[in-house]
Amino acid sequence: MTETVGSRVLHVSRGEVELEDHPINPEWVIEGAPHARISEWAESDDGTTSHWTWDCTAGRFRWYYDVDETIVIIAGSVSIQVDDEPPVVLQVGDAAYFAAGHWVTWNVESYVRKHAVVRVPVPRAMRYAVNGFGRRMHRLRDAMP
After folding, report:
1. Domain extent listing, the chain
2. What is the rounded distance in angstroms from the CA atom of residue 22 to the CA atom of residue 116?
3. C-alpha to C-alpha distance for 59 and 135, rounded to whole angstroms
4. Cα torsion through 62, 87, 113, 72, rounded to 10
5. Domain 17-143, what architecture?
6. β partners of residue 36
7. Is the pTM of this model over 0.90?
8. In which element (H, E) is residue 139 found?
9. Tens digits of per-residue pLDDT, 3-35?
10. Within a 10 A sphere around the Cβ of 62, how many other Cβ atoms?
């Protein structure tokens, strides 16, 4: 269940989000016939960050991250592998961060469900401007009685 708490806080239950089909690119599927579903349940005011729930049935596939993504596994498990590194198993409660511009192999033995925070990377030149603006705003808030 998704509900607003106060004026700026959104609460989402780990199992109550209604998901829509989100097919995995068939060229990325290595084994099986994984069936993925997804739902966006929040987005930042500036549109650079969004919050999703995603699930997938059994299968092995590659996934390309064109945005930064942080996940928390909320049901099931998955084995992930980056390039030639050893696979890592993520289970309920585990978190992972995937930087934009990388391929990751996902091996879902039966089922996995995750919450994801997706962020569009900000170019380095803009990052300095955004960080500087944020620090100034923080100082102004601290200075107010």
Report:
1. 17-143
2. 15
3. 45
4. -110
5. Sandwich (2.60)
6. 56
7. no
8. helix 124-143
9. 444 455 555 655 667 899 999 999 999 999 999
10. 15
